[in-house]
Amino acid sequence: MPKQDGSLKAREFVFLCEDQILKRLPADFPQPEHRIRWTMLQMHFGNEQVHFELQPQMGRGVVETGLHFEGSLEVNDAWVELLAAHAADLLGELGPAWELEEWTAKWRRLHRPFSFQNLTVGLAEEISREVAHAMTVLHPLIEEGMTVIAVTTPQQNGSSKNSRRRRWNRHRRS
Questions:
Q1: Distance between CA atoms of residues 62 and 113, nearest Å
Q2: Which domain holds residue 47?
Q3: 10 Å Cβ neighbour count for 146?
Q4: I want to staple 51 with a disulfide (CB 3.0 to 4.6 A). Which of 44, 81, 136, 146 is the partner?
Q5: Higher per-residue pLDDT: 26 or 5
Q6: Packing angle between helix 161-173 and helix 87-94, nearest 10 degrees?
């Protein structure tokens, strides 16, 4: 239930986004497995280490959304390599607000932050529309990666972290 000023509590906002994302996915689209951990929504297609995440950061006034890679460093870098190989197409579909980032020393993510003053129903609708769209755009690559990355890793194909990063950034500027 929204507060008097129309804002939602973080947990209410996350539940609303979960409902909205699921409603916005195409009828013939595979339904993701999903869970909420207090104020964090995670959705995946069979691999919890490769999941879409949505989390309001109340102190920063930002809702972080994105596709997270939280496996081993080698596997996460292989996912980055796969995304970088399709960077131009992905950015054309997703838009320039999305960024591939080395999030921690081991984890990677393709993410888009949304700034806010208050968590509102309108913001939930905007974010849910964006996340559902990203899921439909990225799902074919996730399916490809589930088979390819299990077999090939960056060390096996001679890639380096810096070359992946340069290629992605070059495609972003184009």
A1: 6
A2: 10-173
A3: 13
A4: 44
A5: 26
A6: 50
Contact 109, 67 (CB under 8 A): yes
26-60 pLDDT tens trace? 999 999 999 999 999 999 999 999 999 999 999 99
Report the relative pairing of strands 33-37 and 99-102 from DSSP bridges: unpaired
Query: What length is written for the chain?
Result: 174
Residue 4 lies in a domain: no
Residue 115 sits in a domain whose CATH number is: 3.30.1460
Cβ proximity of 67 and 79 under 8 Å: no
DSSP state letters, 100-148: EEE-SSS-EEEEEEEE-SS--HHHHHHHHHHHHHHHHHHHHHHHHHHHH
Please state the domain count of the chain: 1
Q: What is the pLDDT of residue 6?
A: 75
Count Cβ neighbours within 10 Å for each residue of 40-75 and write b for 16 or more, e otherwise.
Answer: ebbbbbebeebbbbbbbeeeeeebbbbbbbbbebeb
